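Onboarding guide, step 5: your first structure request.
Type a short instruction followed by the sequence, for example:

Predict the 3D structure of this protein.
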Amino acid sequence: MVGTFLPDAPSVSAESKTNTGDFHARGIRCHTRDQARPLNVVREQITVLAPGSRTGGYEIFRQAGPEGSGPPPHYHPWDESFYVVSGNIAFGVGDKDMIAEPGTLVHLPAGTMHWFRFGQGGGEMISMTSREAASHFFTDVHRAISPETPDIPKLVEIANQHQVTFAAPLG
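The system replies with structure tokens like these:
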């Protein structure tokens, strides 16, 4: 199990419903001391802070990488947002690229071709996906792919199993 998640908020009573309709509130809390070790995903350290299995959908990660690390151009069927905590991180979205500094939020709708590279000295981001999926992909890559000498055909096979598509043949 990744981390410890504890209910923080009781279910919403009928008296506390708003005019926006029915909803249920269940809080989760996760403390860094409760986190599992980061997953090593081809040189990037990814910690699952809130898996979709606990949130009911979205996922939250801490992503840290050394200079030059990051995925090649790819897309997938979930939205993804990145909040840069430290370092400068180059992002490519479609045919445009930018440098995201600390305090920058980058949002990518599902199906958007994108890539990123950690800049000089590396960096750290908090990322969020719109549905449960990325945590399974990251876990499978961590288990099957050597960060030092990645087996590219195996990486592509795992990506395909998780609906992650690379822009061009890797290798």
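Each response can be followed by summary notes, for example: Helices lie at 52-55, 134-144, 152-161.
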